[in-house]
Amino acid sequence: MIGVGEAVGRQDILCLSDLAAGRQAVVVAVTGGRGATARLLALGLAPGRCVRVVMNDRFGPVILATDSGSTRLAVGRGLALKIRLREEAD
C-alpha cells in the first residue's frame, strides 16, 4: 500500500469507483498487492495526483483525466476500488 497512512477508514476518503462524473479529487492512497500498486503507479496514479472523473456509469471502466487534462485513462472497476481519493471542493 502506497500513501495509506491514516487514509483508510476516514469518512472523507472515497474509492475512485464511488466518485461521480465531473468531480475532482486528489489521490491519497493506492492499496492492493504489488502488481496492482505497480500498475497504478506506472499509470501516474500516485498519491498527490489530482484527477477528474470523465465517466463513471457504475458499469465498466472509470474514465478519468489527469491534472494536466491532456491525459485520459480508463481504469477497470477492480483497480478503481484500490484508489483512495479525497474529493476537492468546487
Please give a structural write-up.
- This protein has 90 residues and is α+β, with helices and mostly antiparallel strands.
- The chain has one domain (13-87): SH3 type barrels, CATH 2.30.30.
- Helices cover 14% and strands 33% of the residues.
- It has two helices and six strands.
- The protein has helices at 34-42, 77-80; strands at 13-15, 24-30, 50-55, 62-66, 72-75, 83-87.
- Strands 1-6-2-3-4-5 form a six-stranded antiparallel sheet.
- The radius of gyration is 12 Å and the shape is globular.
- The termini are far apart.
- The model has no long low-confidence stretch (mean pLDDT 86).
| Count of separate DSSP helical elements | 2
Helix content: 10-25%
Instruction: Determine the structural class based on helices, strands and strand pairing.
Output: alpha+beta
Number of distinct beta strands: 6
Point out poorly predicted stretches: none
Briefly note the CATH topology name. SH3 type barrels
- The top-level CATH class is Mainly Beta
Overall shape: globular
CATH architecture level-2 label: Roll
| CATH-defined superfamily | Ferrous iron transport protein A (FeoA)
Order of helices and strands: EEHEEEHE
Q: In whole angstroms, how far apart are the ends?
A: 29 Å
